[in-house]
Amino acid sequence: MTDLMPPELNEMSATGSTGAALTERYTNVLMNTFGPPKRVLVRGEGAYLWDADGRKYLDLLGGLAVNSLGHAHPFVVSAVTSQLATLGHVSNFFASAPQIALAEKLLSLVDAPGGKVFFTNSGTEANEAAFKITRRTGRTRIVAAVGGFHGRSMGALAITWKPAYREQFAPLPGDVTFVPYGDAAALEAAVDDETAAVVLEPIQGENGVIVPPAGYLQAARRITAAHGTLLWIDEIQTGIGRTGDWFAFQAEGISPDLVTVAKGLGAGIPIGACLAFGPAAELLQPGNHGTTFGGNPVATIAGLAVLTVIERDGLLARVKAVGNHLAAAVEALDHPLIAGVRGRGLLLAIELTAPVSDQVTALALEAGFVINNPVPDALRLAPPYILSKADADTFVAALPALLNQVEAP
């Protein structure tokens, strides 16, 4: 640490605080909304992380699909620090060049001239903006999917399915109907001329990386168009190249009315966005919505830097290649606890034959691999796009020994 750092951080460095000591201090002062931290992390570089005790980990979770370019990517670091040293924040009474350029770039990637962008700080806020846009249609009813996750602010929670997240905060904004995910007939039966919007994820990440049948999003587009209903695609986890396409919906060749993005866009800098197309792009008018930090110059230059690196380094192709390699290698293990691998690109789930994902995740962390257990019978992998096949192979080589230690219920 240096004189340029706050003295509290210098004190931590000088006393050589261990992970256990820092975890105790965390528990004393942070609200218990996440449970105790699994580790106290102090440094990241590329696809690797180091904790306060000096242990190294391969990051196969990417900060929950956020760290698209890994840790401390030099292009992002340079862009953000240069922008912060030039112009760090302006209110939304004013505009900035990075804000305009990122909006133009996002719309070009969707290939939707005439679209409009509203920047936010996170995915749930992007969905709040989209939610308010749907109310501006004059209709209130929304159709969402069983298993869907759209955030934990009150509006986004209203269209999130999981009862454990919802019930303790009822009543939520109402007029939401849930239908089985991937069932086009159920969707068709639920949508009518009073439906404001249908909101769907192209792949349900938080539900264990559930991929719908081919043609499902095309059916959703046909059904919503027939009723004058907005089709809102939540790409917060799947967007910005995570599946090997800029946006996962593009694999089905559809054109939604609303798209929400976040996570990978800032590669660690908080940013989200709601993109609207056609008539939906004009529904929000001055005074309808706002954000203090959304679209500020530092966040938007980070987004531009991320998109630049993905294009410059051909990372969409790398995501597909490494993702296919990783999935095939895991399936080739032919381990009795592995039922298969589902997902696309670098958003994958290892399906387990028993509800032991919490045990496997803990064992993996002890062995130096950061993974996640979104549901009891699946492990989620969402690593940085810079992950190499050699990096992936170290995890595949270690996985059988981890699974062999599991105590099946």
TrEMBL record:
Entry's localization field: Cytoplasm
PROSITE patterns: AA_TRANSFER_CLASS_3
One GO MF term: N2-acetyl-L-ornithine:2-oxoglutarate 5-aminotransferase activity
Note accompanying the cofactor annotation: Binds 1 pyridoxal phosphate per subunit.
Needed cofactors: pyridoxal 5'-phosphate
GO cellular component: cytoplasm
Key words of the record: Amino-acid biosynthesis, Aminotransferase, Arginine biosynthesis, Cytoplasm, Pyridoxal phosphate, Transferase
Residues binding N(2)-acetyl-L-ornithine, per UniProt: 152, 291
Record-listed N6-(pyridoxal phosphate)lysine modification sites: 263
Listed GO biological process terms: L-arginine biosynthetic process
Keyword check for Transferase: yes
Chief place of localization: cytoplasm
Protein family membership: Belongs to the class-III pyridoxal-phosphate-dependent aminotransferase family. ArgD subfamily.
Binding partners and assembly: Homodimer.
Name assigned to this protein: Acetylornithine aminotransferase
Annotated source species: Kribbella flavida (strain DSM 17836 / JCM 10339 / NBRC 14399)
